[in-house]
Design goal:
The chain is mainly α. It has helices at about 10-20, 20-25, 45-65, 70-80, 85-100, 100-115, 120-130, 135-150, 155-170, 170-185, 190-200, 205-215, 225-235, 240-255, 260-265.
């Protein structure tokens, strides 16, 4: 299965997928209006929108800290202040996704899209929620809608999420192409590098897998899972010294990890 690597970087790595644009979305950002309309800036906001935005920004901070109940309460207050604020419903959807209440999450995202149907961040979040729920065709369609949204700046994140979901859906060839696009747009993303290395390793293309695994493991974002994958790739390529060096890093830096235990058992085919 293709997943985000676990270990000491679990939360920030996975948040790159889940937190599509909590802070950017909360700010409401300047958006182009329809034909003949001016850009809406923060100074144009009515007082109730400003109060709601402040609540949503607080909620986003609590959400990032894992305080989901407090975040949800802040979002509910924001919606009471301004029930037309799409970013509040978007964040509410993220919170319900984290709480694994898919029905309320979908309702929240759909309400956000009724208020702002061109918001790529909400389409991305809806797609990721569908992916977690195993509704892959709907997920892919939502990611496509996100990428087509005007002024959307999250393309690397959406290509990455789409590729991860294609792999989960049993579409490795499509996932590889999609993840390669994500890597092209954001070559420093550790989840992209890990999943590309894993996909290529699983289909026996370890020479190419080595490129992504080494790039990741030579960075400060290496973790137990990426080091263990690197060990297996180097072993299959016959690079015993490189595999031993990665194994030593794994033992030293993550001695209590599941991967360190697998290394001690010699469970290279698990």
């Amino acid at each position: 299965m293709i997943v985000g690597p676990t270990g000491r970087h679990t939360v920030p790595w996975l948040l790159t997928l889940l937190l599509a644009a909590v802070l950017a979305g909360c700010a409401g950002g300047p958006r182009p209006g329809g034909a003949g309309q001016d850009w809406i800036t923060e100074s144009d906001e009515p007082p109730q929108r400003k109060r709601a935005r402040t609540r949503v920004e607080l909620a986003a901070g609590y959400f990032e800290q894992g305080q989901l109940t407090v975040a949800l309460d802040e979002v509910k207050q924001a919606i009471q202040i301004d029930p037309t604020y799409a970013a509040a419903f978007n964040l509410r959807g993220l919170i319900y996704t984290a709480l694994r209440d898919q029905r309320l999450a979908e309702d929240s995202f759909q309400q956000a899209l009724r208020l702002d149907p061109r918001d790529g961040d909400t389409w991305h979040n809806l797609g990721w929620m569908y992916c977690q729920d195993g509704r892959y065709p709907a997920s892919f369609d939502a990611f496509r809608r996100a990428l087509e949204a005007p002024a959307y700046r999250g393309q690397p994140r959406t290509w990455l999420a789409w590729g991860v979901c294609q792999a989960r859906a049993g579409q490795p060839a499509e996932a590889e192409r999609t993840l390669a696009r994500a890597f092209e747009l954001d070559p420093g993303n550790p989840i992209t590098m890990y999943n590309l290395a894993l996909l290529l390793h699983q289909r026996g293309d370890d020479a190419r897998a080595q490129f992504y695994a080494r790039r990741l493991n030579n960075s400060e974002l290496a973790n137990a899972e990426s080091l263990w994958l690197g060990v297996k790739i180097e072993r299959r390529l016959g690079n015993r010294e490189a595999a031993a060096q990665l194994g030593e890093q794994l033992r030293r830096r993550f001695p209590a990890s599941r991967e360190a235990g697998a290394l001690e058992r010699g469970a290279f085919d698990e």
